[in-house]
Design brief:
Elements (H helix, E strand, L loop, with lengths): L3 E7 L5 H15 L6 E7 L2 H5 L3 E4 L4 H10 L3 H10 L4 E4 L1 H6 E5 L12 E6 L10 E5 L16 E5 L4 E5 L8 H4 L4 E3 L8 H7 L4 E5 L3 H5 L15 E6 L2 E4 L10 H17 L1
Parallel strand pairs: 1-2, 1-3, 3-4, 4-13, 5-6
Antiparallel strand pairs: 5-10, 6-9, 7-8, 11-12, 12-13
Length: about 270
Amino acid sequence: MTSTIIVGVLALQGAFIEHIKLLQKASISLEPVSSHEWRFIEVRTAEELCRCDALIVPGGESTTISLIASSSGLLEPLRDYVKVHRKPTWGTCAGLILLAESANRTKKGGQDLIGGLDVRVNRNHFGRQTESFEAGLNLPFLGSVGEGNNIQPFRGIFIRAPVVEKLLPIVEGDHAGEAARGGTVIAPSRPAYAAAAKSMVVEQVEVMATLPGRTASLMGTLDGNYIEDAAGDIVAVRQGNVFGTSFHPELTQDERIHVWWLKQVITAVNNTS
């Protein structure tokens, strides 16, 4: 019997249409190996969110997305979705900021975070819009998409991109140490609900991709107080069902990361069915 998996893309602001187009392309690539039917929907309400087996938080403007989510009553349901139920969730660029447990260099008044990834992100790490760039990324996890050992570099598009500057310890409750940092906001804690969700909370953050050398080349222009030497330029991370990338796969025509992520969604759905 064929089952339907519903994947939502948060559609409050940003590149949500681009994600849906690439998800559709990725689902076609999966047809020979997947018996599932896919539905991809735009998510603007808590009711639409509840229908989703998985969610993408797209790139855009993280403060704007946060403000709209808060004013529309969607922020708390998003926190429950990601942190309490640990549903498969992927954030790109602004989405990575929102899924972080801690974010620095925030605008005056800060912004609300969803949380879910025990990391501190540095907003606009690489500079302003004019300092956006592209770089070929080595993504070993794409070997599971069928490329074996001959994995072609992925074109990473970085637009006012954040970076993961520190992997945080797993703590019960809020990250109080992060809250004490100047210019830093944290996500409120939410206890996981089901046993499977609780097991994901204790999983360590896995570094999925780095951008070697970029921070070193910019050290003369960046505030050293915001740079964690041990972390380097971490541009993709995963913790349990929550995945985040600094860059914008949805702005390319390369569906490989979307194919890989949909495979993770299938695994998660199968484990909870």
